[in-house]
Design a protein that fits this description.
The complex is a heterodimer of chains A (92) and B (198). Chain A is mainly alpha-helical and 92 residues long. Chain A has one domain. Chain A contains five helices and two strands. In chain A, strands 1-2 form a two-stranded antiparallel sheet. The longest helix of chain A is centred in the N-terminal third of the chain and has 18 residues, at 14-31. Chain B is built from eight helices and three strands; from the N terminus they run ββααβαααααα. Chain B has helices at 31-53, 56-72, 82-101, 105-115, 124-142, 146-156, 162-169, 173-197, and strands at 4-5, 27-28, 77-79. In chain B, 68% of the residues lie in helices and 4% in strands. The radius of gyration of chain B is 20 Å and the shape is elongated. The chains are: A mainly alpha (92), B mainly alpha (198). The interface between A and B is large, with 49 and 52 residues.
């Protein structure tokens, strides 16, 4: 849940902040090809805790895997790729 | 570790050269990624199957079956076109269902539409959105602290394992994780600028 402060800015609740931190940690942990079975089980438990857990994980994973992020990373390494055909990054 | 390449996507080339270049990069799906893929395409698949089987309930069941099929492929396969694969599985299940039912000629007319994966050409809106995201990510990456950026690029662009990055940067693997976490967190944070504007 989110609420707004006096200026109308969205303030994520503590729960939301914690969820996001945990989801970020799981996306990174599971990206490791050496991830242990123990971690996988721990992730399954975490993920199954609530729909919010699953949603937050899905959101972070989709950012991590997004073609735009890959394209941006490639462009950061090789600036000449910067102008590469954006169509490459625009389909999912 | 051996990784099997699944040749379930038929005519599609191993690495696609079309607009879906990045989508075409083979990826080994973990169960968690399968769950996420499914989550991402569930609605799209359901809509398509409703069109085919003319029943929301049956479509929902078939989409669920699609997920189970995908999970059965295991988590050590390389899936080259996850979206196309999901559509292929779902369409095949729907065709099987229609054949079994054979309740109307109308349903069989759907077989033709069933065989084509919907057009993936991005809409102008999608393209603009994508460009915006690309720029925001690039900016976020350029603003990352040096070591965070280094770990992130070694991981995402050069495909180094955490272990290799750890050795190269002379830190522990959990140190690598912390740097990558920061990179992902900043990327997510950066997106808020356009998410809030929508």
């Amino acid at each position: 849940m989110q609420c707004t402060d006096k200026s109308g800015e969205m303030i994520p609740s503590e729960r939301q902040v914690r969820l996001r931190y945990e989801a970020v940690a799981w996306v990174i942990r599971l990206h490791n090809d050496q991830v242990s079975q123990k971690d996988r089980r721990a992730f399954d438990d975490w993920h199954a805790q609530s729909p919010e857990h699953a949603l937050m994980y899905g959101k972070l994973l989709s950012i991590w895997n997004s073609s735009e992020l890959w394209a941006a990373a490639a462009a950061a390494v090789e600036p000449e790729v910067h102008s590469f055909n954006m169509k490459t990054a625009s389909s999912r | 570790m051996t990784t099997q390449i699944l040749n379930l996507v038929g005519a599609e080339p191993a690495v696609s050269h079309d607009a879906g270049g990045f989508v075409g990069v083979p990826i080994a799906l973990t169960y968690a990624q399968i769950a996420s893929l499914f989550h991402q395409y569930r609605e799209e698949l359901t809509r398509r199957l409703i069109g085919m089987v003319k029943s929301r309930e049956t479509a929902a069941d078939l989409v669920q079956d699609t997920y189970v099929r995908l999970l059965r492929l295991g988590d050590r396969h390389v899936v080259e076109q996850p979206r196309a694969l999901l559509h292929r599985i779902a369409a095949n299940l729907a065709i099987d269902h229609i054949r079994k039912e054979k309740h109307s000629v109308q349903a069989l007319d759907c077989l033709d539409t069933a065989m084509a994966v919907p057009c993936q050409a991005p809409s102008p809106e999608r393209e603009l959105f994508s460009k915006q995201r690309f720029r925001i990510f690039l900016q976020a990456i350029e603003h990352l602290p040096f070591r965070t950026r280094e770990a992130f690029l070694l991981c995402r662009v050069h495909g180094y394992s955490y272990k290799e990055i750890a050795t190269r940067m002379n830190i522990s693997e959990s140190g690598v994780e912390k740097l990558l976490m920061r990179a992902l967190d900043r990327s997510c944070e950066a997106l808020k600028a356009i998410d809030n504007a929508e």
